[in-house]
Amino acid sequence: MRRKVAPDSSAAAGGEAERQDLIQLSSAICNGEDLSPFVRKAFASGRPESLLHSLRQFARSKESEIEEVCKAHYHDFIRAVDDLRSLLSDVDSLKSALSDSNAALESAAGPLLSSLDAYLEARAVAGNLSAALAAVRLCVRLLDLLARANTHLTADDLYLALRAVDAVERDFLDASPHATLRRMLLRLIPAVRAHAERKISKEFSDWMVQIRVASRQLGQIAIGRASASRQREEELRIKQRQAEEQSRLSLREADLSSIYSLEDSDDSDDLPAAIAADGSGFSSGGAVDGILGFDLTPLYRAHHIHQTLGLQDRFKKYYFENRKLQLTSDFQVSSMIPFLESHQTFFAQIAGFFIVEDRILRTGGGLISRSDVDALWETAIAKMVSVLEDQFSRMQTANHLLLIKDYVSLLGVTLRRYGYTVDPLLDVLSKHRDKYHDLLLSDCRRQVSEALAADKFEQMLMKKEYEYSMNVLSFQIQTSDITPAFPYVAPFSATVPDLCRIVRSFIEDSVSFMSHGGQLDFYPIVKKYLDRLLGEVLDVTILHLVESGGLGVSQAMQIAANMAVMERACDFFFRHAAQLSGIPLRIAERGRREFPLKKSRDAAEKLLLGLLQAKIDDFFILTDTVSWMADDPPPNGNEYANEVIIYLETLVSTVQQILPIQILRRVLHGVLTHVSAKIEGLFLSDSVKRFNANAVTGIDADLRLFESFADSQSHLFGDSEESDVNELKVALLEARQLVNLLMSNHPENFLNPVIREKSYNKLDYKKVVAISEKFRDSSDRLFSTFGTRGSKQNPKKKSLDALIKRLRDVS
Question: Which of 401, 403, 421, 400 is nearest to 412 (CA)?
């Protein structure tokens, strides 16, 4: 143990500061603090030796403390050493025993350890084998699913392939035994789905192209079936009209039942029925492939695949947008092709489009909604209305407008079966009704003018029965139900059947335009336009022909005969319009009006009468040879009268083969009235200064010839009333009364109102005065007064003078 040295007292005062540093350094060391501040301070002050000195002092101070502690526990250390020495001997004996035990244990446990190592190794191998088998089984199932997916992809069974891929993703992606296999699955699963989406999208695109062509064919077939259905309805209506006509003729009940025995229509002609009959195709996504080439399988398959891919909403939107684009493309009307040639394709394409959409709406599993279909239909009908408005405004041919109207009405019938509203289309047709009929009237006006211009106004000759049926019976203008012998000369010219055909065609075209347009009772409208045709076209055109001049007696006579036949034809026109409009004939007959061609008929008769009167005037030129102061009356009347009688007899023999009795009566009455006026005019003529009783006797003989002619024609009016038998003689009454007055022995009786009303009611007193003043007795001739002076005055002369004087006083 080191001895402790006492400090130097001389250095005590000088080392006070070092003592303090030493205390701080000791405190820092004891507390385990960082000594770097002390080191920096020592080097900073430039006295590192003091720090080293302090450290050495601290070490010496601790050594002394250790010595003191060792000194205090010296005996304890000795005892401990003794205990350790005794323990060392025990440990040696224990060590030898343990060594012996260890040797024995090693000799005994050696085989066991070898067995344990073998067991652990076998167990590790078994675990590895089990893991390998599990991984193999997983891989086998995975490869089986992948093989099935490949098979389905090869067979184009995309749905089954996607189901297999979904199973791989669900069951094997997270449980894949190796990272490489997992990476492969993560790469291939999206690739398979993308392949399926691309393939089905291509199929869908191909279907979109095919369905556009199929839609056009589908629309044409559907509209064609609607047309066939309409034709069956027309045939049924014709049979019903036949039944009505036969019932009016009181035919046997058996005939009526045979007429009403209609064949059942074939339901296969109806498009919905045909589709329903092939419902198996639609249930699997198909359509009527065999009938229409209409297949929805690719669409439904694409929808199903997109549902499987979780892209249903995107596909619905894609489908709607593409169909909308197709519809917009269908709206394009080519300006290179006339609309008359392209309208069927245009409307058939739209009809087929919406027939397909209706089927998809009902069987597509929510692929498209009702609101989407309605939106497409509103767009389509607005476009169709716009196209029709534009095309109708340009058309100037009635037949073209009718053809398009018929097809549009068939389109409306077709699409109405599927629940689409077609009223706007029908409104467009109704809106252009007046324009159509104006064009139709214009065409008819041209045809009527051409028919009249081409007619020679000669009686029509029919050599065969079919000609009679075509030109007479078909218009019900025959006067007898008995078929005449052939060849048959009709009382009318070729114009009449031509005009009837024009009017009948007009009626049928008008009814065709008005029918199937949403309006049930359209007969009043058809009748209104028929009245316009007869009044504004037929009547005006014939009237213009009559008033244009250049017609002879035979032509005027033929026109008058034609008008009589047209009067019967007009009854047929209104009956035909009623039948085609589907109303009973009794209702149509209630509103029957007067003859619509009355103006032209009256003008034709007036022209004929005027021409005949002009001919009579020519014969009356012969009255210049009449001797008005003859010594003796002519024995057989005057020459002009004989000529007129010969002409009238010839005229009647010719006219009664052409003109009806009523017209002939009116014509003869007018001619004889004119003859009467001409006879009266002879007495009033300025060329006749005076006349005597012999001249009056000659005129009386002439008048008796005319009256005899009138009596000879009474057989023509045998079906008339008794008052009509002497109708022709009444036409001569004024001349007869004048001659009777001049031949009367008491002409002053004219002043008696009773006698005048009974015998001279047709005479005008002014004319009587003028004529009476010209009358001279035979004794009044020149120089006769020298021989008769002083003789008694003639009583007749006295009476006539009194009459003249009284009539002058009255005037």
Answer: 421
* Residue found under tokens 């995309």: 158
From the list 444, 601, 424, the residue with the least C-alpha distance to 529 is 444
- Dist CA 672 CA 712 (whole Å): 13
For residues 401 and 439, what is the distance between their CA atoms, to the nearest angstrom?
Answer: 9
488 phi and psi angles, rounded to 5 deg = -115, 130
Across the strands, what pairs with 691?
Answer: 775
The residue whose two tokens read 């035994």 is 177
Both tokens of 228, joined, read 């066939």
Contact 348, 219 (CB under 8 A): yes
Is the separation of the CB atoms in 230 and 414 below 8 Å? no
Cα-based torsion angle of the residue sequence 217, 219, 222, 226 in order, rounded to the nearest 10 degrees = -130
Return the closest-CA partner of residue 353 out of 323, 333, 317: 323
Angle among Cα 276, 305, 366 to the nearest 5 degrees reads 50
For residue 412, CA distances in Å to 163, 226, 704 come to 46, 10, 76
Phi/psi of residue 13, each to 5°? -65, -40
CB 617 within 8 A of CB 626: no
* pLDDT number for residue 266: 43
Note whether 648 and 671 are within 8 A (CB). yes
Non-local CB neighbours of 466 within 8 Å, separated by 6+ positions:
none
Cα–Cα distance measured from residue 312 to residue 296, given in angstroms and rounded to the nearest whole number: 17
DSSP 204-272: HHHHHHHHHHHHHHHHHHHHHHHHHHHHHHHHHHHHHHHHHHHHHTT--HHHHHHHH-PPPPPGGGSHH
Which amino acid would we find at residue 725? Answer: V
Rounded Cα–Cα distance for residues 97 and 301 (Å): 90
The reported pTM is: 0.67
Distance between CA 495 and CA 292 in Å, rounded? Answer: 50
- Closest alpha carbon to 676 in 687, 664, 684: 684
Residue 47, pLDDT score: 73
Dist. CA 318–CA 323, nearest whole Å: 9
* Cis upstream peptide for 487 (omega within 30°): yes
d(CA 782, CA 299): 125
Sign, CA torsion 302/306/309/314 = positive
Lowest mean pLDDT among 203-212, 268-277, 439-448: 268-277
Please compute, for residue 158, the number of CA atoms within 13 A of its CA located in the half-sphere on the CB side.
23
**148 or 172: whose pLDDT is higher?**
148
Query: Rg of the chain's alpha carbons, rounded to an integer?
Result: 67
